[in-house]
Structures are given as C-alpha cells and as structure tokens.
Amino acid sequence: MNGMKWGETILSIVEVKNLTKIFGNDPLRALTMLENGKSKEQIYNETKLTVAVNRVHFSIRQGEIFVIMGLSGSGKSTLVRMLNRLIEPTQGEVWINGRDIVKMNQEQLRQIRRKTIGMVFQKFALFPHRTVIENVEFGLEIQNVEKRTRRIQAMQALELVGLKGWEDRYPDELSGGMQQRVGLARALANDPEILLMDEAFSALDPLIRKDMQDELLDLQQKMKKTIVFITHDLNEALRIGDRIALMKDGSVVQIGTPEQIMMNPANEYVERFVEDVDLAKVLTAAHVMRRPETIGPDRGPRVALQLMRDNGISNLFVVDKSKTLIGVVTAEDASAAVRDGKTLEDIVITDVPVVTPDKRLYELFDICGTAKLPVAVADENMRLQGVLVRGAVLGALAGDTNIPERGGADAVAENTTG
Amino acid sequence: MPLLKIPLAEWVESAVDWLETHLKFGFDLFSSAISGTVDLFSYLFHLPPPFLMILLITALCYWIARWGLALFAAAGLLLVTNLGFWDHTMDTMALVTTSALISIVLGVPLGIWCAGNRTVRNGLTPVLDFMQTMPAFVYLIPAVTFFGLGVVPGVIASVIFSVPPTIRLTSLGIRQVPADLAEAADSFGSTPGQKLLKVQLPLAVPTIMAGINQTIMLSLSMVVIASMIGAQGLGADVYRAVTQIKTGEGFEAGLAVVILAILLDRLTQNIIKKNEKRR
C-alpha cells in the first residue's frame, strides 16, 4: 500500500511548476522580490502583499494519495485551489494529464473540472436546499446528463460510501460524518481521475475521523484514484499518505514517503513537527522485523539443529523454494526428532502467528506479547518477509534509531516487492 | 441669497422638457403597457362577485397560513364590503399588484447584477438612497408631465419609491450564500448561470422574499399619494375625506387600507416561512 511497486510504470498525472500565489494589489511587484531572495515577511512589510504560495514544484503520480501538510496559514488550501483554478495562480504552471490548465480558457477549464477533478470540502459545502441524492447528482446535472442516467450513477456513488437509503434526506438531517460521505459521493459521482480533498476530515471528531480515513483507504483500494489530500494533522498525513509534501510559509519544505519524513527530516522545522508523532501509529511490522533464519522442508532435523546452534536461536522457519511459509520448528522438537529418527515434516508446527508487513506497531503489541512462537511477517501470499523480535518492537518505540536502519525505508520497498 | 444660485431647478426642467419632446413615443408606449396591466388586474379582481372573491382569498390564506389568517381575511374583507369599499379595494389591489410586479421584474435582475459586480453596486447604492428618501410627491410632478393624470404616474411613482428593497435584498441574499457553496458549484464546473440558478438564487429566496414583502408594503403606502394625481382606489377615498375634513369617512377608508396591508403582509411573510421549511 505504501510506496510504489516496482515494475509499475510511474506516471505523473499532476505536474506543478514554479507555482506562486500572491494576494494583494499589483502582485507582480513581489515576484521579483521573491527572485531576489526576500522572505515572505520582508515582502509583507515592504509592500503589504501576502505571499501565500511560494514557487512550488512537485509531481503527483497516478493512483497515489499525495498529502499536502502544513499548519494554518502555510498556504496549503491556496495551493490545492490552484490545482483546479478556484484561485488563479500569480505565476507558474499546473499540468494535468499533459495540459497546462493555467493557460486554458473558461470553457476548457470547466470541462476539466467536470470530468477530471472532483473536490471535497472541509465544511462539506453540501447544498442545504437539495436532498442527499440531488447533492450527489449535482456534478452530472450541470453536464446535462439525462435524469435517469445521473440518478443511477449517483446511487452507485452513494452506495460506495455506504449511504444507501438516505438519498431523500436533507443534509441537515445527517451527522457530520455522514455529511462528508455525501460530499465524497458527490465528488465521486462523475468518476474523476483526481480527487482534491481540502481538510476533508478536519471538521469531524477524532473517532469518526479515523473511520473515514480507513474508509478512504478502503475505497482507494477499489478505485485507484489520484488523491490530493490537504491536512494540518501529521498523524493523518502519515496514516493515509503515500507521499507527503510538508509546507511552511507557502513553500514546500520536504516531499517524501511518511517513512522518509519521519526518519530523515529535511530540516529543523520538519524535525520539530515529527517529534511528537506517535511512532506506534507510523511504524509498521516491515520497519521492525528482522531477517528470518529459514530451512527447506526436505532437510533433516540435524541440519536444523546445527543452523540454530550457529545463529544462537531456538527456532527456525520452514519455507519452500518460493519462500512460502510452511511453519516453524523448535530446537526441542528437532533434538527429539534426531533421537526418534523423525523427519522435519513430522515436527513442523504450522500454526504460526503471522502478520502482514503493513501492520502498524500498535496492532502488534498483543500478538508479540502473547505468542509463544516467533511471529512471522508474511505477505498476502504467505511468502515470508521477516520475523518480529519482541525487543526490537519495543526498541523502535523508544526511538531506537538502529532499528529503522535495518528494517527501514529502503527495506520496505524490497520487502513489499512481492 | 448668494450672488449666483446654481440653476438646478432650471436644468432639471429643461431636461424634462427635452425628454418630453424627444421620447414622447416611448412614454406613450410605456404608458399604455402599464395602464393595460392595471386594467387587466382590475378586470380580473372584479370578475368574480365579492362573496366568491372573499371565499377564494380566504381559501388562499388557509392554504398558505392556516386558520388565523383565513379568519382575519374573511372578517376583514366582509367588513370592507359592508362599508362599501369593495370596488375601490380591488382597484387598489390592481395598482399594488402591478407596481409590485414591475418592481420584481426590474428589481431582482438588478439585484443579481449588483451582487456580482462591485462597481455596479457602488454606483447604484446612492441612487437607491435617493429614490427612497426623496419625498415621494416630487416624483409625481415629472410623472404627470410624461404620463398625464391617472393611474399610470401613480404606478411609476410607486415603483420608484418601492423597488429599492427588492434590489438591495436580492443583492444581499446572493452575497450571503456561503462562499464554500459557491466554490463547490464552481469546482464541479458550473457556468455562472448554473451557479446562479441552481445554488445562489434558491438559497437567496427567503431574503429576496423579505425584499418583495417590503416592496409591496411600500407601494401600498404610496396609494394615498398616488390618488392625488387621479389614481382610483382607496387612496382617493382617503384623500377626499381629508380635503373635506370628514373624520369618520377618512377612518373607514383608512381602515380598509390597513386591512389590505395586513393581509398582503401576512400572506407574503407566510410564503417566506413556507419556503424556509423547504418541504
């Protein structure tokens, strides 16, 4: 889920170049000042112009969740509104599917907004005079889609977000979480390639917010949209982002995967930001697992015992040639097997606790605490990726920097290659 | 007295003269359109016999605002009939309906234009102030010059006096639509027209209706003034009573105006409420 898989072509669907927004009269004055290296504050003091977004570059890959993260006033909302030109850029280019929308005329821009980009708003922005289904239909209605067709499409979108049966209610009859589902369904109804979500979950209370994040990730598994998600909540960013762009004072400070940002903060600002992140919610099994010692099922118990002795461990994973996990053998059973003349297949324990590499640390505590056997980390095809050692799990929580180096960001890509 | 008085009065008069000679045809056309509309409404209101009309109005009141207003309508209108003011009340209704209609047709689009364009808004606001505060009698003079005596200058003066609330509140209603809703409409690729019709206007309806309510009330208050230049109706009765110092008759005619005013006010108010409930 996190990171791109190898072998998949990396296409950028959104390409932002040198994008700048300056609010105030005659904003071009500030552009030269920016080029000359003046700060946002200096420019404001001299000209009363506000630099909201300062020469931003990035590209967003098809199918990823790209999070733009920053505190209030960092320019993230202005930035996202320039991606569909709700706010006109002062300078710069926004390439979407290979076309620069900044150069488009109103009609071309409308077509892009109708077909390619959907948007979800912080305070839902549902139309209070329209029912739920009429809200969801809105995007299709303004394209003059025939009434029956648009009702069918809108119902599908509504079902997707789990609100079937609520279509004839009015928005004010729904809870906040449900209202935002309607907002999401409205954005999805015309099946856009890109979804802009401007602090979409920030107005919800924390438990609902987490549900919505999970649901968004679920939906994303099915839909494979390109999502640009704006948030001021780093935990949210780390939870759902494939990549994160961190903004400060209108500039992008760092772009990277959640792991890269956590492990290698680009500067002091990012460092301070990530300081109070709950590591248990960020790090995954892939980060803390260790390289497993394995043995083929056709080997004898003697070989197994020797291997354990060499490595100073008391059990071994049994895997076949394609690294598919069969089970585990313990030193005790192996020496009994040597005595009784049994084979490895006789003594292998198949009932091994297994977790997937993307399991978050906080979900691992229970399993690691209660398991009598080592916990295997395996992908959905049961191919063994690593082993969890209790000390390493706790060590990672304490900020043990050695851990991520061994199982860290680079290893993730390898391990999820599958 | 200053040595040189600015000849404002002379300027206004020569402007009026110029308009009268050069735009006579336009004014005539305009005049017949207005008097035609008033006549049409007057004909319609007089068509059913009074008791049937009272029944219809009572039913309308019941449909829009339930029993309270329906009872008031029945009692009030029966009293008006009893006092012998039925025909004049219907004349007044025709005049008010016409000027309210013209005010809406002019005011709502102007309000929309104001809402979308700051320059227009800044330019129009002092004009609206002028229209509302200039003593209403003053409009009567040029209105009579252009349109002669009778109901037409009465309607014109009413419209000038009563259109500002519709313009102001339409503009306000549209500008009050939350910015994120307008933004949402834009983000899905609405044309400005679609945004206006599907989002801004529906949400502005309660405010616009409040403006229309004010417009109707103001045009009703112009009725008496309009009667001074020959507009028929209750205003004429009041005016006659005033000139002849007949307190009793004046009170009767005035009461009929009050009953009509309360009826129209409560009706439009309740339409607003019905609208706010949405369902």
What does this structure look like?
The complex is a heterodimer of chains A (418) and B (279). By secondary structure, chain A is of the alpha/beta class. In chain A, the strands form 4 sheets. Chain A has a 6-stranded mixed sheet, sandwiched between helices. Chain A has a 4-stranded antiparallel sheet with strand order 2-1-4-5, with helices on both faces. In chain A, helix 8 links the parallel strand 7 and strand 8. The N terminus and C terminus of chain A are likely disordered. With 279 residues, chain B is mainly α. Chain B contains 12 helices and no strands. The longest helix of chain B has 34 residues. The mean pLDDT of chain B is 88. Classes of the chains: A alpha/beta (418), B mainly alpha (279). Chains A and B meet through helix 4, strand 6 and helix 5 of A and helix 8 and helix 9 of B.
Number of helices of chain B: 12
Note poorly predicted spans of chain B: none
Describe the largest sheet of chain A.
6 strands, mixed
Given the helix and strand composition of chain A, which structural class is it?
alpha/beta
What best-fitting shape of chain A do the alpha-carbon axes yield? globular
Helical content of chain B stands at over 70%
Mean pLDDT figure of chain A? 84
Q: What form of chain B results from the Cα inertia axes?
A: flat
What is the strand tally of chain B? Answer: 0
| Helix and strand pattern of chain B | HHHHHHHHHHHH
Distance between the termini of chain B: 65 Å
Rg of chain A is 26 Å
Main structural class of chain B: mainly alpha
* DSSP E strands of chain A, number: 16
Seen as an oligomer or otherwise, the chain set is: heterodimer
In spatial order, strands of the major sheet of chain A run 6-7-8-3-9-10
Topology:
The complex is a heterodimer of chains A (418) and B (279).
Chain A: E1 12-23, H1 28-35, H2 40-47, E2 50-61, E3 65-70, H3 76-83, E4 91-96, E5 99-100, H4 106-115, E6 117-120, H5 132-141, H6 147-160, H7 176-188, E7 194-198, H8 206-223, E8 226-231, H9 234-240, E9 243-248, E10 251-256, H10 258-263, H11 268-275, H12 279-282, H13 285-288, E11 294-295, H14 301-311, E12 315-319, E13 325-330, H15 331-340, H16 344-347, E14 354-355, H17 361-370, E15 375-378, E16 384-388, H18 390-397, H19 402-407, H20 409-415
Parallel strand pairs in A: 3-8, 3-9, 6-7, 7-8, 11-12, 14-15
Antiparallel strand pairs in A: 1-2, 1-4, 4-5, 9-10, 12-13, 15-16
Chain B: H1 8-22, H2 24-46, H3 50-83, H4 86-116, H5 118-133, H6 136-147, H7 151-175, H8 179-187, H9 192-221, H10 223-227, H11 234-243, H12 247-277
Helix pairs in contact in B: 2-4, 2-7, 3-12, 4-5, 4-7, 4-9, 5-7, 6-7, 7-9, 8-9, 9-12, 11-12
